[in-house]
Amino acid sequence: MFCSRCGSKLEPTSRFCSSCGAPVAMESPSYPPPFATGQLLRPRNNRMIAGVCAAFAQRYQWDVTIVRIITALICLSGAGALAYLIAWIIIPEEPYALPT
Ligand SMILES: [Zn+2]
Predict the structure, then answer these.
(1) Fewest CB within 10 angstroms: 18, 41, 53, 77, which?
(2) Which residues contact 17 (CB under 8 A, 6 or more apart)?
(3) Helices 52-60 + 79-90 axis angle, to 10
(4) Ligand 1 mean position to 1 CA, how many Å?
(5) Cα of 15 to ligand 1 centre, how many Å?
(6) How far apart are CA 68 and CA 50, in angstroms?
(7) Threshold 0.85, pTM exceeds
(8) Could you read off the pLDDT tens digit of each residue along the chain, which spans 100 residues?
(9) In 3D, which of 75, 76, 96 has the Cα closest to residue 87?
(10) What Rg, from alpha-carbon coordinates, does the chain have?
(11) Which residues surround ligand 1, an ion (CB under 5 A)?
(12) Ligand 1 centre from 82 Cα, in Å?
């Protein structure tokens, strides 16, 4: 890495430039992407059929078992199965977790 002010080569561990003293821009710490918040994604694990229930449970911090029970009840009522299929199609799948 290099100093953004003077261009001197820096040690990867240094926090300040040894030439000009400018603080080194720290790269954001690498931690797993926050799948638990934000976008609605179908997780690749912890899924029963297509991960639709798990997606909603993960997105809204619900209990996945309760989501599945409610989904099953809605599906039994008729239109729910169609809604599940639509959710299956429109909710994107979670990207593969990259090896760290
Ligand atoms: Zn510098």
Answers:
(1) 77
(2) 3, 5, 6, 8, 10, 23, 24
(3) 70
(4) 11
(5) 11
(6) 12
(7) no
(8) 888 889 888 887 888 888 898 887 665 555 555 554 567 777 767 676 777 777 777 777 788 788 788 878 877 877 777 777 787 788 777 777 766 6
(9) 75
(10) 23
(11) 3, 5-6, 8, 17, 19-20, 22
(12) 61
Which residue is listed with tokens 């449970």?
Answer: 57
Residue 62 CB partners (closer than 8 Å, separation 6+)? 56
Report d(CA 31, CA 43) in Å as an integer.
17
CA 5 to ligand 1 center in whole angstroms: 5
Question: 26 with 33: CB under 8 angstroms?
Answer: no
